[in-house]
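Structure ticket #2291
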Amino acid sequence: MTKFSKRWSDPALVETCDVMDRLFQPMTAADGIAFSIGSPAQEALPVDALREISQDVFRRDGRGVEALAYGTKMGIRDLREIIAAQLLAPKGVQTTADNILITAGGLETMKLMCDVFLDPGDVVLVESPTFVHCVMIFQIFNAVCIPCQMDDQGLILEDVEAKIKKYHPKMIYTVPTFQNPTGVTLAQDRRQKLAELAEKYDILVLEDDPYRDIRFKGKDLLPIKAFDQTGHVVLANSFSKIFSPGSRLGYVVAPDDIMEKISYAKVATNSHSSKISEVLAAEFFKRGYFPEHLKRICALYRERCAVMMDAIDTYFPAGTKHTYPDGGLFTWAELPGDIDTTELLKETMDQLHISFVAGSGFYVEGGDAGKHCMRISFGAVTPEKIQVGIKRLGDYIKTKL
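Resolution: structure written out below.
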């Protein structure tokens, strides 16, 4: 048999692939409760609005032919203009449609950036813990991921600067708002400082911000990109959490020189993103559905988060620590004692029909890092099931101490 490429034999990549398999492992039991799923709630999907829009779009005298035809590498212009005016300008990011590329989901930006910038052995600084899906992409390109310390205000920039001096990275990858997996948000002053470090050391910052708009309490913060004066910050975002994950739409904001290269990498990958999804999304915004939709989904997640926080405080064992997110879909719990959450997950899925994501897979440093941690998602679980599932899970954890 023809041999696979060497990178697919890399033990680190194989291990990450195993983590990804567990991350998407379905909960098939009829009474199962999946705290592992990082997707939006079914109730947050704009089914009725899109049905109405589709009736208008898919007509020859509407946008039907446009939606079903080939498109340009950058994506349809009205959607890019909507992104600039409605999603970026209110957040302090001033740009134009020419510096926005529509991608096939938020993750495609990571691959395009790796295509353009990473050579084998290049270093990428990541958060500890970090989003494992992007680690997988970096590893496919034979990059070396170096972890940087975090606290309850996000990345500790003294550690970031020390790692910059030691490892001379090509890129810094961060999820600054309601981070996956912890739910932690990078403080405003640290965002500005990170942009300044990127300029000082001539390093790219890849700002992955798909949860930013799902804020249900606290003050909105400017993106890192808003502090970028020299084109060292590339902003990646997604429509998956605020519109539809099935649409597979995201976007990237980058300066001219970077945009030129990643747009050609896009052409080499898939020519352009789905025109059908782009047209439907553009019409969703142009017809004024988004503001009320966003209010509704933020209220939905606010309720679910509050129920989750109260349930963990009530039912998990004394000594448990967890984050209190101001938005997004996740909280992060650190259990007392010497519980291995990877083994715990096997037991809870088998005996309780409850899933979460074990913490160790989010740490690139390996070893026992994250051994006693878990990512718990409240986004796709109803308040009633959150109460039942967290009580059942907490009671079981107490028997292991």
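Closing remark: The two ends are 49 Å apart (CA to CA).
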